[in-house]
């Protein structure tokens, strides 16, 4: 079974994990060394797409828009 380290945001999430352990969905392994791990790195800044969108030609943009419209209508949606 693969071992995965997760950060649990609050006590409610810990309780949810305990319930999953009780029904044998997950196993909980406590590791004192895990407490000494450094905090995760900050998320990278979101990419700025405006420059990329401005760089395509009008024809390419129209073709892309048509393609997106076609693939969005391929699936039946009951929303």
Could you write a compact summary of the structure shown?
The chain is an all-alpha fold and 79 residues long. It is built from 3 helices and no strands.
Give the SSE layout.
Layout: H1 11-22, H2 50-55, H3 58-72
Structure description:
By secondary structure, the chain is mostly helical. Helices cover 42% and strands 0% of the residues. The two termini are 38 Å apart.
List keywords for this structure.
3 helices, 42% helix, 0% strand, elongated
Low-confidence stretches: none
**What is the strand tally?**
0
- Helix/sheet category: mainly alpha
Beta-strand percentage? under 5%
Largest sheet report:
none
Amino- and carboxy-terminal Cα gap: 38 Å
Number of helices: 3
Rg measurement, Å: 23 Å
Estimated helix fraction? 40-55%
Instruction: Give helix and strand order, one letter per element, not per position.
Output: HHH
- Mean pLDDT across the residues is 76
Question: What best-fitting shape do the alpha-carbon axes yield?
Answer: elongated
